[in-house]
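Progress report, Aim 2. The chain analyzed during this reporting quarter is listed below.
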Amino acid sequence: MELTEQQRQSVKEWLAAGASLADVQGNLKSEFGIALTYMDVRLLVLEIGAAVKDKPDPEEAKPKPPPPPSMDDDDPYADDPYADESFNDETTPDGEQAAKVSLSLDRVMRPGAVISGTVTFSDGAKASWLIDQYGRFGLDPETPGYQPAPADMRAFQLELRAELRRHGYA
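Predicted structure tokens for the chain:
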């Protein structure tokens, strides 16, 4: 069915006012006595070069609540320049080479641990680590008596902290 120029102009006005395709379909029927299928209305809108305005999502229309207060206020490491950095093949802000530490989290936590995993230090030594329900940290090296270098421990602590944040623990 072919519409007159006045009818086409009415369709454009309805769409500009925010009408949906279903609204246009109803208005054509009630005002002009023209019964079109929904698909015909879609094709008509394309043919006359009009555009249907997207209605805002109900989620976007509501004001968003403010984010919860940051826990960084009580964080003693909040000013730490290494806090969210990875320590594999990077340099520190001072320009020195950072220790290479590889860290992983266990899929199934060890008994008594809230979270646990393994670490490989820069010298290749491996150890298991855990944090218990009281927040106590434990490190169990594969080699009895092994003590990681201070730079390795610092890199491990920072890498662990970043990994825990990625998994929602901090």
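Confidence is low (pLDDT under 50) at residues 82-96. Residues 85-166 form one domain. These observations will guide the mutagenesis work planned for the next reporting period.
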